[in-house]
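Name: HTH merR-type domain-containing protein
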Amino acid sequence: MRIGEVAAKAGVGVRVLRSYEQQDLLHSIRSPGGRRQDPAGAVERVGLIQQLCAAGLPSRIVREVLPFAGSGEVSPRLLELLGPNVTAWIGRWRTCDSA
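Structure predicted for HTH merR-type domain-containing protein:
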């Protein structure tokens, strides 16, 4: 999927996607012609990034939390990453998710 398609489906601007890529939150591949191609699941990943950021997590923490997002488990490492603000962040994340 091309960057414009991902942006439109995710409801964000192309600049947001490029920013996420620069922050190592989103990954794309390049075609032989140099065009950016986002993998399947990119729209859902952008939505999750948006929710985590809306819950108040800084991008450095979002980057670390993303690998745990698909598992549905709360591991000790995830709790360590979230630190003392874990209860507030989880509460805000649930609020964002239900909105």
